[in-house]
Amino acid sequence: MKEIAERGQLAAYLDSYGLREVFPEALLPYLILYSFDQGELICAQGEPSSMLYVLVKGKLKIYNTSPEGRTLVISFKNPLEVIGDVEYIRDGDIVNTVEAVSPVLMIGAEYRWLRKYGGDHSPLLHFLLDIITKKFYMKSSSMSFNLLYPVEIRLASYLLSVSFDKADALFRGKLGTADLADAANLIGTSYRHLNRVLQKFTSRGLVERSREGLWVKDPDGLRKLVNRNIYE
Known about the structure:
It is a single chain. The protein is of the alpha+beta class. It has eight helices and eleven strands. The protein has helices spanning 7-16, 85-90, 111-118, 122-148, 151-163, 179-187, 191-203, 219-226; strands spanning 2-4, 32-36, 41-43, 51-57, 60-65, 71-77, 81-83, 97-100, 104-110, 207-209, 214-216. Strands 1-2-9-4-7 form a five-stranded antiparallel β-sheet. The protein has a four-stranded antiparallel β-sheet with strand order 3-8-5-6. The chain is globular, with a radius of gyration of 19 Å.
């Protein structure tokens, strides 16, 4: 995580997304623009939370680990999205692990300044309520994804989400060989089954594998297979 000192860039994102109407004026000096590298963790499930982030550029992967140790991907998020809102309202630890899929920019505000200057600010409270409501709806739906959809659809959706960012046409992500086991866990299947599906995708020219990792070769073919991305 790096702090971007240039206030002009922060101001541009505030104006672009209409966030000046959301945050109280007294809070604006305490807002900071942060950058995260691809693969960097924004926050980890179970850790203490002290910061609210607003995603303004890039893509995030959100996943959860159950008490039994089962890890499942919940969703991928594009701007405009908020991280740390549920924790701010509940005053609790971080609910889900959040990771940068592509290079990410986020506006951050410490909880102490939010409570001091925005605790009773109606536009901010309405903004958070709308975001949180959508999150709980998405989480409810996502829990059934791994039961209702076959592994082929889950894997195709996952590959599309980690490999492309619709806001950055130049971004082309890849899965390293070591990442495939994690991918199997995240979509709720075995590593052996994932490899069988990948062999089918490779034979159909949808993906390409090498010693370095895996790339999506035919994104349009994957999109036709899934009809719609179940994780976005």
